[in-house]
């Protein structure tokens, strides 16, 4: 249907020219009445760069987070590519926890095996600062039912405390549209010094969510925002209000001071312009790799480009090392 495609293209271009925020599928258009970050930005005056520099007494650590590292081969590739943090999908099954996007029948190794491998690499000198657990079904098993506790969120927390944390690896518990469940509350109420909580979403709604439901400690609140293709609905970083655009949302979150860390996702090779835009607005890290697939050798170029981009902003950033505590 060429005519329809042409009309859609015209509409899209017009929206960009007029500055109208284009809304991502699945997100509702809620007025940004409490855009604290944006109001603070305007109140302090000046450019985005001015705001960033005013709040930075020294260089800040940056996290190059390898995407969908769900098996041993992917882990080794990511570490050899220079990743200093790992994003891992976690899936609860009747056999326990698996590092898998879709379940153990699809891909991945057991969570225990993966955690042991991460711990060995960290002990061997690799600068793995934290593992980001993208938990797909955190409420599948009831931690209060001893028959099923082994696949519950409590068992997963026990596992990271047994294997990862004694080696100095921090843990980020990620909840995506599951932050209203019992698993979220259990983790929130029992965070230790090596743990934090991530929720993906827009700055103002998440500020409200964290304010009402916790955690109260800002350092433990981690916001992420993005798209499998980081360039989709990226914006120009300076749109006003609640623009459903990646760079603007992350700018507002970083400027607000209401979140301990802000992370964007997912940058592939050849997308340095987006990574560098996020560096200019003060994000703390970027997930890189393949937006819709597990980590493989093709992600090496994206990792190299991130390091090159950091070099351009060496007055603001350095690549986080083993001794950096993100929360």
What spatial order of strands do you see in the largest sheet?
1-2-4-5-6-7-8-9
In CATH, the topology is named TIM Barrel
End-to-end distance: 51 Å
- Beta-strand percent range: 15-25%
Principal-axis shape equals globular
**Topology as H/E string?**
HHHEHEEHEHEHEHEHEHEHE
Helix content: 25-40%
Q: Residue-averaged pLDDT, rounded? A: 86
Low-confidence stretches: 1-38, 40-56
Q: How many whole angstroms does the radius of gyration measure? A: 20 Å
Count of distinct structural domains = 1
What can be said about the biggest beta sheet?
Answer: 8 strands, parallel, barrel
> Helical stretch count?
11
State the CATH superfamily name. Phosphatidylinositol (PI) phosphodiesterase
Named CATH architecture: Alpha-Beta Barrel
* Class from secondary-structure proportions: alpha/beta
- The number of E-state strands comes to 10
Classified by CATH, the class is Alpha Beta
